[in-house]
Design a protein that fits this description.
The chain is α+β, with helices and mostly antiparallel strands. Helix content is 24%, strand content 28%. It has one domain. It contains 2 helices and 3 strands. A hairpin with a 6-residue loop joins β2 and β3. The relative contact order is 0.18.
């Protein structure tokens, strides 16, 4: 916002996250600082050769090491950040995760379109269409 003003937390959408020290928590993030180590372990028992632009699928078993709350710029609210340790990692087939990845992609696309009013189709804005 202009002039160093922050958007009040009461004006922000409720994301269902518990407040922290009186401030709303409006997003969640994750950090996996040891990700390369977990992948190195997986590759040590199942060596793979990858080429540029190749895609692979990896599943992680994670454990929360720490939770912190970071301020969000220009907003009087926080982001909950989970710092994770890798317990285990494994390469998996596309078929094993394809349905979940597709569901997640649809959720992301819907979120990018924004909320709809009752009776509106997803993606409708309610704005008049230009000619």
């Amino acid at each position: 916002m202009a002039d160093g003003m922050k958007t009040p937390g009461s004006m922000l959408p409720d994301k269902g996250l518990a407040p922290f020290e009186g401030l709303p928590v409006i997003s969640a993030g994750m950090e996996i600082p040891g990700a390369s180590g977990g992948l190195r372990d997986a590759l040590s028992v199942e060596p793979r050769e990858f080429h540029h632009e190749a895609e692979c699928y990896v599943v992680f078993q994670l454990r929360v090491r720490k939770v912190r709350f970071d301020p969000i710029k220009d907003v009087d609210a926080l982001q909950r950040v989970h710092v994770m340790d890798i317990v285990s990692a494994a390469f998996v087939s596309h078929e094993l995760v394809a349905d979940e990845l597709e569901r997640q992609q649809l959720k992301l696309e819907e979120a990018r379109r924004g909320p709809t009013l009752p009776g509106m189709a997803p993606g409708e804005s309610g704005e008049p269409q230009g000619e």
